[in-house]
Amino acid sequence: MARLVVVGTRRLALPLTAIGFDPVEAVDAAALERALNELSVDENVAMVVCGESQVAGCTEAVENFRRNGKGVVLVVPDGPEPLGIGRAGIRRAIEEAAGVDLLGKAETE
Predict the structure, then answer these.
(1) Which of 16, 74, 96, 102 could form a disulfide linkage to 6, CB 3.0–4.6 angstroms apart?
(2) Is residue 92 part of a domain?
(3) What's the total number of domains in the chain?
(4) What is this structure's pTM?
(5) Domain that holds residue 63
């Protein structure tokens, strides 16, 4: 059965556990990196949601999961100011799939 997983702080995880995500607590980038490495070998993981503030410290682990894992990683804003990491990743994925930049550049890019 496909698993939906949220990796991060309780603040990030709580709303998603209400709709069926499995929580994996990670309070810093090192913990997020360890969790992603473990989840990348789990064939049942369909989606992993992570917060931008932690992903900023371990972008290589996210890219490694995307290359080796069976599921997708969705990076969401989790701080007072969005860092743009999640939007940039979604924009890149859409551009690769559609062959055109459908979202356009953000004002901060």
Answers:
(1) 16
(2) no
(3) 1
(4) 0.77
(5) 3-81
